[in-house]
Structures are given as structure tokens and as C-alpha cells.
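Board notes (copied after class):
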Amino acid sequence: MSERDEVISRLFHEEYENLFRKAYRLSGSTQMANDLVQETFLLALIRYDELTEHPNPRAWLSTVLFNYSMNERRLWENSHSISLEQLGDVFQAEEAEIFEEILPEKLSDDEKRLLILRYKHKMNSRELGTFLGISEGAVRARLARLLKKTRKYFDFPEENQKDT
């Protein structure tokens, strides 16, 4: 193994968890966080000299991760903006109705809508927060409470009721 590979490997093992947590907080998505960390280390390989000449390689990695995250956010915002009318059409789609049919009847319309947006339409906490006008943390808290409530309406054995 070359010195370059050893340095990158060492940094990867030392910094992966920290960078992943930062990426997850920035993106709200496990998959996106993994992608951001991978892109960060890919750039570290490409710009190895710049990385090793930097007085604080960990800070260099964090800055690269943050910049990648902001770029992804700008790309997403520019390519995924839809009007409220278009979003209303999503709820009337046949697939949303099928998903809605399996949800417990005892859930309110707002609770069902939140589950549909999250699991059927794959909106992350950031997107849901923007749509609902609340923070990402509030979205995660609502989803956690809602999932716990929803589990009660299904006949899941006790061991399957662990938080996911």
C-alpha cells in the first residue's frame, strides 16, 4: 500500500463517522450522507497534495463535505421545485390512494398525509419541514410519535415494535 493510500485510509477510518453525522444533519438522508462522504474522500484522493499540505486535514475534509452538501441542496432546489397545485395532484394519484387504504382508519387526515409524503413520496425531514413550515427536528419527532401510534393499530408481535 502506498503512503497516499495509507494516509487516505487512516483518515477515512478516523473521520468517517464524524463526517457521516455532519452529512446526515445537512442532508437528512442516510443515502445522501453516504454519497457526500464518498465524494469527499474521492476529492481527497484527487487533491491529495492539497489535503496533506493543509494545516488541518480534518477541517479540509469537513469544508469539502459542507461545500458538496450545499451544491447538492442547490441542485435539488433548482430541479425539484413544484407548485402547491402540482403537490395537490400528487395526493389524488391512484398510487397514493392505494397507500392510503392500508393506513389505519383511526389516523387523522394530517397524519396520513405525513406518512404518504414520507414513505410513498420519499420526502426527507428537510423537505417535509419546508412543506409543513416546521423544523426538521419537529418533523422527526412527529414521525417517531406517529410511527409508534400506527404500530398500535396493527397486530405486530412485541419484538417487532422496536424503533427503526
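Comment from the instructor: Residues 3-27 form the longest helix (25 residues). Residues 84-160 form a domain with the Arc Repressor Mutant, subunit A fold (CATH 1.10.10.10).
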